[in-house]
Amino acid sequence: MYRTSLLVLVIFISLARLCSSRTNVLFLIADDMRPQIGAYEGKHFPAVVSPKMHTPSIDVLASRSLLLERSYCQLAICAPSRSSLLTGRRPDTTRVYEIGPYFREVGGNFTTLPQYFKMNGYLSVGMGKVFHPGEPSGWDDPVSWSDPYFSGKTNFESFNSTWSAVPDELLIDNPLIDEQIANQAIATMQRLATDARSGKQPFFLAVGFRKPHLPFVFPESFLKYYPVSTVKLPSNPYIPVNMPDAAWFDYPRAQKTRDVRAFNVTGESIQLCQIFWHFSKKAYYCSVSWRLIL
Ligand SMILES: *[C@@H]1O[C@H](CO)[C@@H](O)[C@H](O)[C@H]1NC(C)=O
Ligand SMILES: *[C@@H]1O[C@H](CO)[C@@H](O)[C@H](O)[C@H]1NC(C)=O
Ligand SMILES: *[C@@H]1O[C@H](CO)[C@@H](O)[C@H](O)[C@H]1NC(C)=O
Questions:
Q1: Three-state SS string across the chain, please?
Q2: pLDDT tens string 108-118
Q3: Which of 15, 80, 142, 192 is at 20 to 30 A from 125, Cα to Cα?
Q4: What residue owns the CA closest to ligand 2's atom 7?
Q5: pTM of the prediction?
Q6: Is the C-beta atom of 109 inside 6 A of ligand 1?
């Protein structure tokens, strides 16, 4: 029914070379990323980025980085992709194919990326959506982290709607969860950088963002980047021929929202009305722009 290609975006930034030559690491992760940022425009890419995306900060970072031009997602859903990336194993090994299972219970007691840094003398600090959150998924995998985990709290998110443009003034006192996470990351980095300069442990800081995952909740002012005429419906609405069953995900969360339920979809159907598609896509683009601008 609702199908976002998922591409995990990972950015490593070396912040400082310590005297001991151990580099601090900032690891940023967001999911449900299509190749839909300005940095993917250009002759190396087979598909045109349309509409033109407003993602100036990530584009500048990409221009100074190693940008992987042919990257593929493991499964088009968040928890399996995250488990796979963080353990360095395919979903066939982690046995996480959907939201819920905890890889240590269903796949194996694998060493994760943050855990590996921790085992090698780093202070490993995590916040936001790095592992899939929640109890069944293993409570953000405590063994991976040296410090208590910061999750933030959701504001303006509900099952009422797949998307919501929140008036900017309402966000001043109640920031969206990703902004709380970004603020926490900045404060933590300032604290850890001081420690690092004083010769304490090097750090691995993992900062995970919720958007552009559903529901698409973003400040209303971002609507201006995607005028109605720029948002096009998919030219081919059909499932690829011979697609493996595991690649299809009939988004249960989207199906629970009131706006989708009103269409009486069964999970097999992609026959949502065109207006719905149109606004969903626009809201997705706004979420990408908002998330990647901070
Ligand atoms: C998993 O491995 C960690 C060390 O990496 C160990 O502390 C823990 O006890 C193991 N858990 C199980 C269930 O074997
Ligand atoms: C969701 O809808 C219900 C019923 O209309 C309403 O009471 C509730 O406040 C809504 N929640 C949000 C976050 O908008
Ligand atoms: C969905 O089902 C309800 C109840 O059967 C019906 O009233 C409504 O018109 C249906 N909506 C659509 C979009 O078919």
A1: CCCCCCCCEEEEEEEEECCCCCEEEEEEEECCCCCCCHHHCCCCCCCCCCCCCCCHHHHHHHHCCCCCCCCCCCCCCHHHHHHHHHHCCCHHHHCCCCCCCCHHHHCCCCCCHHHHHHHCCCEEEEEECCCCCCCCCCCCCHHHCCCCCECCCCCCCCCCCCEEEECHHHHCCCCCHHHHHHHHHHHHHHHHHHHHHCCCCCEEEEEEECCCCCCEEEEHHHHHHCCHHHCCCCCCCCCCCCCCHHHCCCCHHHHHCHHHHCCCCCCCCCCCCHHHHHHHHHHHHHHHHHHHHC
A2: 999 999 999 99
A3: 80
A4: 160
A5: 0.86
A6: yes
